[in-house]
Amino acid sequence: MRGRRLLGKGLALIRRVARVRRPVILMYHRIATPMHDPWQIAVSPATFERQVEMLKQERELVPLSWLIDRLERGLPAGGIAAVTFDDGYVDVLNNGRPVLEKHGCPATMFLCPGLIGDPAAFWWDTVTRIFLETPDLPERLELPGPGRRLSWTVPTSGREAVHLDVWATLRTAEAPVRRDMLDRLLDWAGIPAEAPAAERCMTEAQCTRFLEPGFIDAGAHTMTHPSLPTLSDADKVAEIEGSVRGASALFGRPVTTFAYPYGDADAATVRVAGRFVRAGACTTHPSSVGRGMDRLRLPRIQAVEEPAEALARRLASHG
């Protein structure tokens, strides 16, 4: 009997060692069930809780800055996971924070200080509301573009292709141009600029609530969520440095981590980030984190609406 007990303990130890895999950083955006989710950035509250429960069982959950520090010092980090959220959606406060607190799961929220409290919030959600949630739209759409006039025929149903085309046009437009295009789109569609309350970015007071009592960190995510490689160096500095300062003011202490909007990070953008980001910066490249990786190009694996077992398999496939 004693030999069987020792064998059982040995097998359990082998299984535990086998589960020690390369560390991963997870990327979430929304904890909600929106009417439309074309970019797969929403995870329902029930699914999120099951995913967190799985992560607690399979991995050691640590703050992102703690993971980066271990990697920088060359210390073991196998089997570790860090949870991050982009953008600052209010549903992460309402639906996500209770789950994080219940399970003692640390997390990092990458904030865009220039969008905090904005009732219009995120432009991509406005585009989705227009094309995928507004029943009656005019048949023709024309927008002034750089050097030319853009036009689309808008069908009464099946508008996914037009939605994607307009989104791609706005994604790389300069901020003033995008704002003008959005205003024209809203007038054309006949809907208000204000987003539904449940889909907005957090207010300053809500950010303060989310970041207390201290198991959640703040990170920076630019001021207004542009595609950084499309900006001049001066504008890159304004967006990155401004967001680090703004997020630090909200957090009440220095913010040391950053996430590139859309994961867009060319060499010039990374150089600018390195001037203002002390710990590390995250991309959206789906991979585990290895020793010797560039701290300013850390990969992240996006969590989507899927069973916890499916997420566990995806994480395991990354080593």
Summarize, please:
The protein has 319 residues and is α/β, with parallel strands linked by helices. It has helices at residues 2-18, 45-58, 64-73, 90-103, 123-133, 160-171, 175-189, 204-211, 233-251, 267-276, 308-317; strands at 24-28, 30-31, 42-43, 60-61, 80-87, 107-111, 140-145, 148-153, 216-220, 257-259, 280-282, 301-302. The strands form 4 sheets. Strands 1, 4, 5, 6, 9 and 12 form a 6-stranded parallel beta sheet that branches.
Written description of the protein model:
By secondary structure, this protein is of the alpha/beta class. It has two domains: 21-119 and 200-317, Alpha-Beta Barrel (TIM Barrel); 123-189, no CATH class. The chain has eleven helices and twelve strands. The chain has helices spanning 2-18, 45-58, 64-73, 90-103, 123-133, 160-171, 175-189, 204-211, 233-251, 267-276, 308-317; strands at residues 24-28, 30-31, 42-43, 60-61, 80-87, 107-111, 140-145, 148-153, 216-220, 257-259, 280-282, 301-302. The strands form four sheets. Strands 1, 4, 5, 6, 9 and 12 form a six-stranded parallel sheet that branches. A two-stranded parallel sheet has the order 2-3. It has a two-stranded antiparallel ribbon with strand order 7-8. Strand 4, helix 3 (64-73) and strand 5 (80-87) form a beta-alpha-beta unit. The protein is globular and about 60 Å long. 37% of the residues are buried. Mean pLDDT is 92; it is low at 6-18.
